[in-house]
Amino acid sequence: MTDTSAKKVDAQSSPRGDMGQKYLASGESLAMRLWEQEEPADEVKPSTKREYETVGYAISGRAELHLDGQVIVLESGDSWVVPKGVSHTYKILETFTAVEATSPPAQAHRQDR
């Protein structure tokens, strides 16, 4: 039987992940997370590859997405895609807030580390 229940998640009381992200609504095949007021850093974090696809939307601030040899500047109103299995990292340039959706859910099976 199909699950038809609606779910609501209050970001104020959402659990946090190991990297500081807030977990928002999550379904069987996708999930949302919030990166809120991420502070600038002098260095780029080491690149990683994830077993999920990510789409994101920048709410405020600026960041660089380092993606498989490319550098993409993300600003308020920009959206992006990080394909599954592609080497990437982020560098925060100005205090940054963004929402991302991952498929499958990043927090499933502790993939979101």
From TrEMBL:
Species this chain originates from: Myxacorys almedinensis A
Protein name, entry field: Cupin domain-containing protein
InterPro entries: Cupin_2 (IPR013096), RmlC-like_jellyroll (IPR014710), RmlC_Cupin_sf (IPR011051)
Domain spans labelled Cupin type-2: 43-93
Residue spans of biased composition, Basic and acidic residues class: 1-10
Region (Disordered): 1-22
Superkingdom in the source lineage: Bacteria
A Pfam family the protein falls into: Cupin_2
